[in-house]
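User: Could you go from structure to sequence for me? I need the amino acid at each position, not a summary. Structure tokens:
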């Protein structure tokens, strides 16, 4: 597959729909540009933490409230440490 697009004055270009579909790039998806050679670049979507959900098999169910509590406890601990 080969597509041609133009770059705007602001350095922006449109990723063709066929490429977005194959790569799973949707609105607000972060992407990475990686230089391979002086004249070649690779575009790929960034894998975020939440997209990994289900990739590790476990018998233990995911507990969102426990995760939020742990994060809150850690923030409090860091704040108390800074205040001391």
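Assistant: Here is the amino acid at each position, in order:
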């Amino acid at each position: 597959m080969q597509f041609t697009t133009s770059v705007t004055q602001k350095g922006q270009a449109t990723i063709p729909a066929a490429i977005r579909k194959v790569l799973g790039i949707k609105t607000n998806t972060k992407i990475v540009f990686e230089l391979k050679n002086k004249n070649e670049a690779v575009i790929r979507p960034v894998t975020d933490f939440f997209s990994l959900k289900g990739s590790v098999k476990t018998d233990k169910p995911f507990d969102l409230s426990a995760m939020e509590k742990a994060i809150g406890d850690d923030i409090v601990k860091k704040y108390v440490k800074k205040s001391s």
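One structural detail worth keeping in mind: The mean pLDDT is 87.
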